[in-house]
Write a structure and sequence with these properties.
By secondary structure, the chain is mainly alpha-helical. It contains 42 helices and no strands. The protein is elongated, with a radius of gyration of 36 Å.
Length: 759
């Protein structure tokens, strides 16, 4: 019934002469017709995919032999094929929006493949995105495709865009290549009728009938096509033939009744009434004949019968604005004032904006003004009269116009709509298809496995940002994929995307609180992010379970010291020194701990010890740079950060702090370049967005600065300094309310964690 709402909004029965085309529940008729055409209507049947299977097996073999580059390339090919096939399955199942998403991904991965673009064009067609579909299908045809299904789809797109000459040429070409495609043949008949080529259309329908066989459904569908285009004589003949073949067929009587009204002779209103009554006797559950019978009896001023049928229609579709409008009119005439007010007010509330709605709302307000006068509600009557004057061509004091004029003004021609027939109506309705559903599930699993392998390969290559992307894709496709959140969290931790790592490990622990590895990594991620209070219970829980690694002991000792538990912290650091006295990592950890506690000279000494044992000790130069930066020794800090990057070019934290120093030294171009490098490698690096936004604001590039600062806040809302700088930027932009919100948030975060308002 929902389809009827759309058709009624664009066309109402008219009891006087008009050129309005016939509003028919097209999808119901076409769906029935396509049952006969199912072998060809939905496109070629889905076959097995041995190529994809072989490609996947080759990728797995390369992965097992640790041939990372080859495996990466092969799994990339698997993604293309799997997205293409899943998109195709979804298109054939009528899931057009999902199909578009899959095929767009496949096209992005392999833009040179015209076959994917052809599938994408057909999916956009199914999704009623006609301009996009036509553009894509044109490229496929221009690229040399002779696939009749693609050419027919292009014809369908042109037809929906009302480009009839192009539609006809492509549909004729497709039909010549594949005469057995009955759907193409029928669509061509519709185009010919739109061109008023009655002879060619009749010939096309005759050939089609010979091919598919005569049936009541076929006659009904062809009859509707004739009626739509104003060929009522031919349409009536087909509809009566449909009733001869099947006296109980849906909508034939209704269509004949509408045809009688369309031909504009007032004497034929009784004929239309008879057809509607015949329809409702056979199919009392249908909304359309009940609604139109109510309107017909309203036009005859037979209020009792009009109300009976309109009440029936309202029970079927209680949220239909037009039904309540006509009920309100009938009740106002029959003296049921209270119910009339209720229905007219409901009609106004439900009416959408259109030229027809504009008139109808004005008429409803006018009637309400009269009803409120009768109900002695003068204020409401005056208010409604004023609204009526704004919305309606009637004068509030004018006489009631004739019913035929009222109905005529409610008509909007279907021909004014962008498409008479849409591709969605030409396809069988989405239905549960076990084969399609099974294949969709299979392709989803192939995609998830491929992304997981690509994530593992990226991690092996230490491309942790790429690994985060791949594992996030796994989680999106299959949230219950084994270990996906752990892998995502670990990759994010290695990439220093700490908020993402924290969120992933929290999801793991929500499912399994006993997972010690995830709890340890969660604690370490929280520690590195500066969430010492949150990290402490996780680190204590892991440390108490058995021997702890140096990294864990360092983090635990630091958190204990931050929590004021000095004796316990000292004990942890003593254990650390006893167990790992000759390791450069120990001195690195001790240096980090001393730095965290403000013991700067001790920190510097320990970090130099680490470098003496191993000049490439990871992060030693980084922390020496941070200590120099805190002391305002910018040149020393720059030297240390550059030394860290020399040993570890992918250390984005060192690159970020080097950029920060360069900005402090007013070397803005070089600093901005480094920040952009960071974001190219890791778009989720919140502090890089923050610093870039801050410098843009300082340079007067306020719009770009606000975008970067907003991104920083979105990626990591826990940083007071990001909210503070965003609030200041909003103030400069005159966005007072937004500025107050951000500055207040900065104050709240500063109160929780002192010393973090600015950076």
């Amino acid at each position: 019934m929902a389809l009827w709402t759309a058709y009624r909004k664009s066309a109402k029965v008219c009891l006087t002469k008009t050129s309005m085309r016939l509003p028919i529940p097209q999808i119901l008729l076409l769906t029935t017709f396509l049952v006969l055409l199912r072998p060809v209507a939905g496109g070629a049947p889905i076959t097995s995919q041995p190529e994809l299977e072989q490609l996947y097996k080759s990728a797995e073999e390369a992965f097992q032999h640790q041939q990372w580059d080859r495996a990466q390339k092969l799994f990339g090919g698997v993604l293309v094929e799997a997205y293409e096939e899943r998109g195709r399955v979804r298109r054939l199942a009528g899931r057009f929006q999902l199909a578009v998403g899959d095929l767009e991904r496949a096209h992005q991965l392999a833009p040179e493949k015209l076959a994917i673009l052809g599938e994408l064009g057909q999916a956009h067609l199914g999704n009623q995105q006609f301009n996009v579909a036509a553009s894509e299908l044109e490229k496929v045809v221009a690229g040399g495709s002779r696939n009749p299904q693609i050419v027919a789809a292009l014809g369908q797109a042109y037809f929906s865009l009302r480009k009839l000459k192009l539609a006809r040429a492509n549909l004729e070409r497709a039909l010549q290549a594949d005469p057995s495609n009955y759907l193409t043949a029928y669509t061509l008949g519709l185009v010919l009728l739109e061109q008023k080529d009655l002879v060619a259309a009749s010939r096309a329908f005759s050939r089609l009938r010979q091919a598919v066989g005569d049936s009541a459904t076929f006659r009904l569908l062809v009859g509707r096509a004739y009626e739509d285009t104003g060929f009522h004589q031919q349409g009536d003949r087909e509809l009566r033939r449909a009733l001869e073949l099947d006296p109980k067929i849906h909508f034939a009587h209704f269509l004949l009744g509408m045809s009688a009204l369309q031909q504009g002779e007032s004497a034929r209103v009784d004929e239309a009434q008879g057809e509607f009554e015949a329809e409702i006797r056979e199919h009392p559950e249908e909304f359309a004949p009940a609604y139109f019978l109510g309107v017909v009896f309203e036009s005859k001023r037979n209020w009792e019968r009009a109300k009976s049928y309109l009440d029936q229609a309202a029970r079927m579709e209680p949220d239909d604005a037009d039904v309540h409008f006509h009920l309100g009119e009938v009740e106002s005439e029959s003296g049921d004032l209270t119910e009339a007010v209720k229905n007219l007010e409901k009609s106004i509330a439900l009416t959408t904006i259109s030229s027809h709605a504009h008139y109808q709302r004005g008429r409803a307000h006018y009637l309400l003004s009269r009803l409120y006068l009768k109900l002695a509600a003068a204020d409401k009557a005056s208010q409604e009269a004023n609204l009526a004057q704004k919305l309606s061509a009637e004068r509030a004091a004018g006489e009631r116009e004739k019913m035929s004029q009222l109905l005529r003004s409610s008509v909007k021609k279907i021909g004014e709509q962008p498409a008479l027939v849409t591709w969605a109506e030409m396809s069988p309705p989405p239905a549960v298809n076990p084969d399609l559903d099974t294949r969709e599930t299979l392709y989803t699993r192939v995609l998830a496995n491929s992304y997981n392998r690509l994530g593992l390969i990226a991690a092996q290559k230490k491309q942790f940002d790429a690994a985060v992307h791949e594992f996030a894709s796994v989680a999106e496709l299959q949230p219950d994929f084994p270990k996906v959140d752990f892998n995502l969290g670990l990759a994010a931790f290695r990439a220093q995307r700490l908020p993402e790592a924290i969120a992933a490990f929290q999801r793991v622990l929500a499912r399994d609180p006993t997972d010690a590895s995830s709890r340890q990594l969660l604690g370490l991620a929280q520690f590195e992010h500066g969430d010492f209070a949150e990290a402490l219970p996780n680190l204590e829980a892991v440390e108490s379970a058995g021997p702890a690694e140096p990294e864990l002991l360092l983090a635990l000792g630091t958190c204990l010291a931050r929590a004021g538990r000095s004796a316990e912290a000292k004990n942890v650091f003593s254990r650390l020194a006893e167990a790992h006295s000759n390791l450069p990592e120990l001195h690195l950890f001790l240096g980090q701990a001393a730095y965290a506690e403000g013991r700067t000279s001790e920190a510097v000494a320990e970090l130099h010890k680490a470098l003496a044992l191993d000049p490439r000790t990871s992060r030693a130069h980084l922390y020496l740079g941070l200590i120099a930066l805190d002391a305002g020794q910018l040149q020393t800090a720059q030297t240390e950060f550059e030394a860290e990057l020399h040993s570890y070019p992918d250390d984005q934290k060192a690159r970020y702090h080097l950029a920060y120093v360069l900005l402090q030294e007013q070397k803005r171009a070089e600093g901005i370049r480094l920040l952009q490098q960071i974001l190219q490698a890791n778009p989720g690096y919140a502090d890089a967005h923050y610093s870039l936004g801050k410098v843009f604001v300082e340079e007067g590039r306020l719009g770009r600065g606000i975008v970067e600062l907003e991104t920083a806040v979105r990626l990591d809302p826990s940083k007071a300094y990001s909210h503070y700088q965003l609030g200041r930027a909003y103030l400069k932009a005159g966005k007072i309310q937004e500025a107050q919100r951000e500055l207040e948030r900065a104050r709240e975060l500063k109160d929780r964690r002192p010393g973090t308002t600015d950076k």
